[in-house]
Input
Amino acid sequence: MPTVQDFLDILQQTTPEQLAEDWDNIGLLVGDPNQNIDRVLLALDPCHSLLDRARAGRYDLILTHHPPIFRALKAVRTDTPVGGFIAGAIRQGLSVIACHTNLDAMEEGVSTVLATALGLTQSSPLVATRTGCGNNSGLGRIGAYPTPLSAQDFLNRVRRACAPPWILEAGPRPSQVTTVAVCGGSCSDFSEIALHRKADVFVTAEVKHSVARWAEDAGLWILDAGHFATEQPVLAFFRDLLQQQCLQRGWKIAIDTADQQSPLRLV
Output
């Protein structure tokens, strides 16, 4: 039976740690690398309901996109959400791994999956990686349609691609959409790069007020489709990729994705 460390070795091949941003916190954050694993649960967010799902499904390992430990902890208080999650995972004998910006930056990562879902068959990194992990890795993606779309047709594609609970827009709508920049999650800081790369639209999430105002004057159409919605599509792809890697090694490990919903709701 493979161990947590064996699974970490697969992740190092598929989502190398050197792809992660310097400020990030990834890898094994809770648990024992020598623990045997039989069932793995993938999710975007480490939260208490995920522990309940792991307990009910008898999982050994949780793999999340967002790290449960992000900023340095001076104490693990079980009466706080973070401390309670860590303590709960330990009580259940769960190991917890985070693949955050390394999953964002891998060649077939968060933004590539989103770009593909939008019908962009060829795309390149919006912001190239600084490491030696290949020329096609980096944050965000940019690509073009062979035939321009109307703005409304493109909005329909966004709705089909990630089923966002809302779409907020800033900046002027173009008469047609040919070049598209995307960056799943909170990436509005890349808006000027998208404009410089001559994107007609930039799809991301958590667009800052100042960026929205800037878009009005800069003439860039920005769509905020929500953090959760723009990242969620990667999980199915990542699950299948990891399952394939395990099968190649002769490991019969169950790898499932948790049924999570966005923590934000329209009222």
User: Anything to note?
Assistant: The longest helix spans residues 234-248. The CA atoms of residues 163 and 229 lie 7 Å apart. The mean pLDDT is 96.
